[in-house]
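Predict structure. Chain length: 395.
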Amino acid sequence: MYDVMNGVRVIEVAEHTFVPAAGMVLADWGADVIKVERAQGGDAARHMKLPGADGAINPFFEAANRGKRGIALDLTQPAGREQLYRLIDGADVFLTNLRADARQKLGIEAADLMARNPRLIYARGTGYGLRGALANDGGFDYPSAWCRAGAANGQALPGDMPPRQPGSIGDLTGGVTLAGAIAAALFRRERTGQGAVVDNALYMVGTYLMSQSLLATSIGAPTIPVQSQADSDFALANNYRTRDGRWISLCLLMDKWWPDFVAHVERPDLLEDSRFVDIRARHINSRALIAVLNDVFAGRDYADWCTRLASLEGVWAPVQNPTEVLADAQALENGFVSPVADRYMTGVSPAQFDERPVGELRMGPGFGQHTDEVLREIGIGESELMSLRKLGAVK
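Prediction complete.
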């Protein structure tokens, strides 16, 4: 992990992926992140399993919780809440995604905690924001960030079901942007001593990701149309199937890349074809060019194309599967994927400091793994710890 957040203590009362991902990013940056789970059952993400995955490592939980310490408190009991408050007294950041009614019931609203610690950065994630009819509704990534914000609509062909996400795009983007906002609030606090309330919402993450389409619509400009592969207006920003059924993605947006591309695909005749003589002609005759390139790419296997295109001036990419990403030298040499405690490989949070990869990473905590350790750090003695256990206030 990095050291840019060394000395920063984060207390997290959050579940699933969105806000816990912010805590994971802060832990990557060096913060001491203490995850507070419900004494009865813990984070719901612990109990979500990929179909057919029965191993000890749960991707749903690990992806947002590695690097943290974990304790279990019953916040419905005054004795459990008191331990949380004692943690807050010495904390820099508090993270939560509980709904407003739960925050009020448990006494963990911003006013409650900042009255105890005015320098606190209180960071909150919601589904749909703090105002309006949906303010207290629950949200999840796909419906809240992807569908409501227009991304699903922007990918669906007429009559087709909107596509599913390949992963938790709204949650993980929301987590890293929330972490960045927390860092900005901490910077201001270092200058002024002033705490802050920081908010993010899944719907806001979605509208940000769709901001180009929303902007275009607001001024009456056309958005990028949803088109099939063969019917695209952008032949050189399209995907092509290889002889063995794999795909190559082209993104040749610069006119100057055309001659080099033609040379790489060994079709010099295309330079003389009046239909493709310049960028305007290639746009007008895009479907004809797609038909030509479909035949070209169908003539060689995926591995052959990856080798041939390695020296291409323009931008392209192999359409890789997760196994290939984990073995990709470019990802490995840059530390974009990394081992965690020699137990699994994962993608790291998207920032690097001091021109080096993140380094050693720890797995997520077991349920209540650090309860005794953390409570001893805030002055809880053995007899009090035993009493709290008998009450069921801690696990």
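Summary: The first strand starts at residue 9 and ends at 13.
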